[in-house]
Design goal:
The protein is mostly helical. The chain has helices spanning about 1-35, 40-70. α1 packs antiparallel against α2.
């Protein structure tokens, strides 16, 4: 049962990290296609990376909480 929970958790983490990575790349390209300068596109990408880092931090915290619950 524990192995199954770990696999599910790993799958969710991979999905939550992989999806935004693809989105960030496409956002950069779309910004350039819309006529924004490279600097503006990089600024948009930087803002989205900041949001992504925040999500990862939340996931790490939840993972630690889950590990504590499973070890009890």
């Amino acid at each position: 049962m524990r192995e199954k929970n770990e696999l599910i958790l790993i799958g969710i983490l991979i999905g939550l990290i992989a999806f935004p990575v693809f989105t960030l790349g496409s956002t950069f390209v779309v910004s350039l296609i819309q006529g924004k300068s490279v600097e503006e596109a990089i600024q948009i990408l930087a803002e989205q990376i900041d949001v992504l880092i925040g999500r990862v931090e939340v996931l790490e915290t939840k993972q630690k909480e889950q590990e504590v619950k499973l070890s009890e």
